Description:
mainly alpha
Amino acid sequence: QKQPYMISGHRENRDESTVSLLEPTYQTQSEEIRIQIQNLESSHVRLGSKLKRMVNDRESLQDQSDVFHERIQIIDDTMDEIDRVDKILTKSLRGPPGRLPTLEETEARHKRKRKKHFLFRTQVELEQKREKISEKLEIQKRSQRKIQDQMHRLEIEIDKKKLELSQRESVSKSLPMIVGQSLQRSGLKIRN
């Protein structure tokens, strides 16, 4: 008569808690979740540092835009002053009594016109630069929103994974026990 363990391979009091080698066990599943949490958290930190750089870049661009705005305002004020001086000179030439401008007045008037033309070209260039900066600011604003949305989704995913891990750990099975004798009980002495 064959022993029962020879038929099924099961030995009483020794094979009570069999561990399958092909299916992930509780420990590996938990560790995989922990690794996923760490990966998500590192992605969150990476996006946070990217967002911080973008905020700094945006502040720098905003400062440049403000400087261009101030320069444009100064140019506007200077062109208004040139127009005011020309009006005063024209009014004084009309009279009464009306007179022709002197050579110095004519040269000064041409000098002011050349200056006004130069200032106008400079103003156009500054406004174009300011417009480009405004476009960059708008692009960065959209990118910041996109990154913030990604960070928010990552936070939600991290919370889900942490909840899953805590639930898994709260209902965890006890680890399989290996039945056997310790070396000291078997009579072997361990030397230090």
